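sorry for the late reply, my laptop died twice this morning and i had to redo everyting from scratch. anyway the thing you sent over, i finally got around to it. pasting the sequence first so we're on the same page, its 271 residues, then the predicted structure underneath. double check i copied it right bc i was rushing
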Amino acid sequence: MKQVLKRLLFIAVTSLLLPSLLTAGCGSGGLSDTVTEAGSTTVQPVAEKLAEAFKAENPDVTIVIQGGGSSVGIKSCNDGTVDIGAASRELKADEPNLVKHLLARDGIAIIIHPANPVTGLTREQVKEIFAGKITNWSKVGGENKDIFVVAREEGSGTRTAFEEMVMGKELIKSDAILLPFNGAIITAVSNTTQAIGFISFGYIKNSVKTVEIDGVAATVENAKNGTYPIVRPLYFLTKEQPTGLVKKFIDFCLGPKGQNIVAGEGYIPVS
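ok and here's the structure:
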């Protein structure tokens, strides 16, 4: 059964693993140059929308938006490979001391298959499921079926935030199916009735079901009012204080127009 599940998840992931590249202009008053951004796959979709909106006003500048994960964004920014890194978690003590620009906040939703009768879990139950201590849905009000744990890979900002806010000192079980981005988690869970995973609020779709955590629904409103317990920051990162075109783009993203786009994409604006 495990081999069948892994084969299914492999097919789901490979169908989604297409390079993501957006070329957009965001100059102003005759600006002409290129800005590069890479990192968190949670930040990537909203960054693409922001680049599109900036291009509409400034058609002569190219912005390249790429994914890769938060760790990639941090390293690429520090190495000077990109102008802007993106991270969906706090920086760790052993990572470079980069300049953080808070772009948005984002909830992490726990998702299951729509056919699963479970509607809510406690944070402790979520921790024990992902740690492998609860292995059957009947232990949390579901059917007498094994639980298949689907999680993000090492280096993912979403995984790091989930570990910090939910797992504590516990580790995600060693035989969990590890996938490289939010979309792959959705595909796996929507095609596997016994699966459970976690994703960014910005990726929630009707093909999966979110569960309440400690009696609180996974909604933007509950994340804003502080009742939903699993919320993390989304950052743009620069090696130094930004200047020139990079500063203009970041200022646009943090300004009223940019923050309206943030809200429209299902994230929590910060200004």
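Residues 10-30 have pLDDT under 50 and may be disordered.
thats about all i looked at so far, will dig more tmrw
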